């Protein structure tokens, strides 16, 4: 897909899925602003992308409204506007309900819901001018209940339904859609697996989770994002695309 000279902001782009999304847009000719929660994490990502000319650092704590507004404005100032916003930044932790405290609740809600909403709000004036679009990264856990990650499920379900509501309000000028990944092979998930009592069994459990019996690669998520952001999807808004190997098909 051709995104030549398109102006893109990817939040949570310093590693994992977000990094792959940013790289894929750069490979397709876009100009991309890289957001991460700290100057150091963004600098490390920018170093890995040093072969690309059209990158801009846009660090910011998206758990705060000012952090959202500053990151979006950095991208707008650098590019003279915005065509695509990808809200990938997120927090996720698994705990039984009894162990979920206020700090955990606030951390999830601040980034996964508040951060996403206020990035959208800050970007909308420029996206209206460009007839641009937004792609939110939700989760298969936003489409079904999963025990042990109740708080995460609540926030990602909120992302899915908030995107539907936004789609109605911001049409016809701006489209907004969700990608809902299942398990994805990232450094974070590999580190998590190594901490389990039986890492091999835990990894096999993730493989068996989806009917397709494997874990997604980061580029498979990036390709789904790019499709929804492209003109090929110009009649699609308010939808949630499950990229989960069929995990939610029977749920």
Descriptive overview:
With 251 residues, the protein is an alpha/beta fold. The chain has a single domain (7-183, 217-243), classed as NAD(P)-binding Rossmann-like Domain (Rossmann fold), CATH 3.40.50. 47% of the residues lie in helices and 12% in strands. The chain contains eight helices and seven strands. It has helices at residues 16-27, 39-48, 65-79, 102-130, 150-170, 187-194, 199-209, 218-229; strands spanning 7-10, 31-34, 55-57, 84-87, 133-137, 175-181, 240-243. The protein has a seven-stranded parallel beta sheet with strand order 3-2-1-4-5-6-7, with helices on both faces. Helix 2 links the parallel strand 2 (31-34) and strand 3 (55-57). Helix 1 (16-27) packs across helix 8 and helix 4 packs parallel to helix 5 (150-170). The longest helix has 29 residues, at 102-130. The model has no long low-confidence stretch (mean pLDDT 96).
Which structural traits does this protein have?
251 residues; alpha/beta; Rossmann fold; seven-stranded parallel sheet; globular
Order of helices and strands: EHEHEHEHEHEHHHE
Total helical elements: 8
Distance between the termini: 32 Å
Per DSSP E runs of 2 or more residues, the count of β-strands stands at 7
The CATH superfamily name is NAD(P)-binding Rossmann-like Domain
- Overall pLDDT level: 96
CATH domain fold name = Rossmann fold
What form results from the Cα inertia axes? globular
Percent range of helical residues: 40-55%
CATH class: Alpha Beta
- Structural class call reads alpha/beta
Number of domains: 1
Strand order within the widest beta sheet: 3-2-1-4-5-6-7
Strand content: 5-15%
The CATH architecture is 3-Layer(aba) Sandwich
Biggest β-sheet: count, sense, barrel? 7 strands, parallel
Evaluate the radius of gyration. Answer: 17 Å
Unreliably modeled segments:
none
């Amino acid at each position: 897909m051709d995104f030549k000279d398109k102006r893109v902001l990817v939040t949570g782009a310093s590693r994992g899925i977000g990094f792959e999304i940013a790289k894929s847009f750069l490979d397709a000719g876009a100009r991309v602003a890289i957001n991460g929660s700290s100057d150091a994490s963004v600098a490390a990502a920018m170093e890995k992308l040093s072969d690309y000319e059209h990158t801009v650092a846009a660090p910011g704590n998206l758990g705060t409204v000012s952090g959202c507004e500053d990151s979006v404005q950095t991208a707008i100032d650098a590019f003279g506007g915005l065509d695509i916003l990808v809200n990938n930044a997120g927090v996720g932790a698994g705990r039984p309900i009894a162990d979920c405290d206020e700090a955990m609740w606030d951390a999830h809600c601040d980034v996964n819901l508040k951060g996403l909403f206020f990035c959208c709000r800050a970007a909308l004036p420029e996206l209206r001018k460009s007839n641009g679009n937004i792609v939110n990264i939700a989760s298969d856990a936003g489409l079904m209940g999963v025990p042990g990650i109740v708080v995460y499920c609540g926030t990602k379900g909120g992302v899915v339904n908030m995107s539907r509501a936004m789609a109605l309000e911001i049409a016809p000028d701006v489209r907004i859609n969700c990608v809902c990944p299942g398990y994805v092979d990232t450094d974070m998930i590999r580190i998590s697996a190594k901490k389990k009592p039986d890492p091999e069994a835990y990894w096999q459990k993730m493989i068996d989770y989806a009917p397709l019996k494997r874990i997604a690669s980061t580029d498979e998520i990036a390709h789904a994002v790019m499709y929804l952001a492209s003109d090929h999807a110009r009649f699609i808004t308010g939808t949630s695309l499950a990229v989960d190997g069929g995990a939610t098909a029977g749920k």
